[in-house]
Design goal:
By secondary structure, the chain is α+β, with helices and mostly antiparallel strands. The chain has helices spanning about 15-20, 40-45, and strands at about 1-5, 10, 15, 35-40. Strand 1 (about 1-5) and strand 2 (about 10) form a beta hairpin. The longest helix has 5 residues, at about 40-45. About 0% of the residues are buried.
């Protein structure tokens, strides 16, 4: 995951659009030019910090 020069964020992950399309929350849609990408939760949450 990284920030692009224009401020957008790019993500590399597994394309699971077909597997999750029928399980999206009500009102959520994946556009024709979009993909539902799953990334590991640890990547989003970041490393745990030891408070010592």
């Amino acid at each position: 995951m990284w920030e692009l020069d224009n401020g957008d964020v790019a993500v590399i992950g597994r394309d699971l659009t077909a597997q999750y399309a029928s399980r999206l929350p009500e009102g959520v849609r994946v556009g024709a030019d979009e993909r539902l990408v799953v990334i590991p939760g640890g990547l989003v949450r970041g490393p745990e910090v030891d408070p010592r």
